[in-house]
What does this fold into?
Amino acid sequence: MITVNDQLPTSTLLELKIGEDITDGNTLSGKISAIEISETDEFLMFLFQLENSHMIIRKLKQVC
It folds into this structure.
């Protein structure tokens, strides 16, 4: 089971696949049934649909 949060590298979040087990380290956990990735000028938003709930992770974009 992979612990998913906003401290996880973006590359690791992008590698997650449907069927993998994830947790937020607290109360949410489950198998990924769908993944949706949205992008704005400021951040990437990952929506992981689980069997009975969903998990949203926002990653701020690095601006150099």
